[in-house]
UniProtKB/TrEMBL annotation:
UniProt source species: Corynebacterium spheniscorum
Membrane topology recorded in Swiss-Prot or TrEMBL: Multi-pass membrane protein
Localization of this protein: Cell membrane
Top-rank lineage group of the source organism: Bacteria
Family per similarity comment: Belongs to the UPF0718 family.
Alphabetical list of Pfam families matching this protein: ArsP_1
Name listed for the protein in its UniProt record: Permease
Length: 285
């Protein structure tokens, strides 16, 4: 998709939300709260988003050779040292597998890198506290390893597309991710005001929201913190989103094939939800 299309989509969605607020007779203070929440989420998240895209672009320009790594946990651990967002991790993983990296190791890296890299963990610490940082790291790390062990080698992939120079990569990734952040923050502000995510089903609703909203992992902590739900439900949002969402399903289909995407997503969603529940019960509740 052309990156210029995404800001237009974001503006249409925000305009639609604003129009709905007016049409349904929302009072002025409600509309003000909506825009205050939306702007706060965007402004808080953009510095981390920019840092993440710059670091990701640096990694994309370096010739990496991980062909000697055969142990799946090492693939997940490599995600900590290679700060790539989920959009960059998918084609990078395909490239590493093409150069001889064991597929299971590549999948562990692809799943772990967007969730446990330093940029994401620092953003999580700013939005939450040390307990949530530890819970996110442990749940995401274990989920990546388990999924990689359970999954089978991929169906032959399609050609990987590169963005070119360093500056082109930064601009493309930042515009793409920032556009998703804008509409994601708007949806989060709207849901926070009217949907009332909470109650006995908040854990499952937050997991579903993470899948639908397709937030960038460098920014999702601020959105999760804006919901007044139990910590385990916030954790589900933070663990599920970087590993499986609508945006990632499209990327998986483009890079690994449609059959891969349709079979991979349910497994990832199930494992991430289970790990979020287990780790959340042990560390957060």
């Amino acid at each position: 998709m052309n990156p210029r299309v995404l800001p237009a989509i974001a503006l249409v969605l925000i305009g639609g939300a604003t129009l709905n607020l007016g049409l349904f007779g929302a009072p002025l203070h409600t509309r003000s709260e909506f825009f205050t929440t939306w702007m706060a989420l965007v402004v808080q998240a953009l510095p981390f988003l920019l840092l993440g895209t710059v670091l990701s672009a640096i990694v994309s320009q370096i010739k990496l050779d991980l062909s000697r790594i055969r142990w799946v946990p090492l693939g997940a651990a490599a995600g900590f040292f290679l700060p790539t967002c989920e959009c960059a991790a998918v084609p990078l993983t395909r490239s590493l597998i093409n150069r001889g990296l064991k597929p299971a190791v590549g999948y562990a890296f692809m799943l772990a890198a967007p969730a446990i890299n330093p940029v994401v963990l620092v953003a999580t610490a700013v939005a939450f506290d040390a307990r949530m940082v530890a819970a996110r790291f442990i749940a995401s790390f274990l989920a990546a390893i388990i999924i990689a062990w359970l999954w089978h080698p991929p169906i032959p992939a399609t050609k990987v597309h590169h963005h070119g120079s360093f500056s082109a990569t930064v601009i493309h990734d930042f515009v793409d991710a920032a556009s998703i952040l804008v509409w994601g923050a708007a949806v989060a502000a709207f849901v926070k005001l009217f949907a009332g995510v909470g109650g006995d089903y908040s854990f499952f609703l937050m997991g579903a929201l993470a899948f639908v909203m397709s937030m960038c992992s460098e920014a999702d902590a601020f959105v999760a913190a804006s919901f007044h739900v139990p910590p385990s439900a916030q954790l589900a949002f933070l663990v599920v989103g970087p590993m499986v969402d609508l945006k990632l399903m499209a990327l998986h289909a483009a890079i690994f094939g449609k059959r891969f995407a349709l079979r991979f997503a349910p497994l990832v969603f199930l494992v991430t939800m289970v790990m979020s529940a287990v780790v959340g019960a042990l560390l957060l509740n």
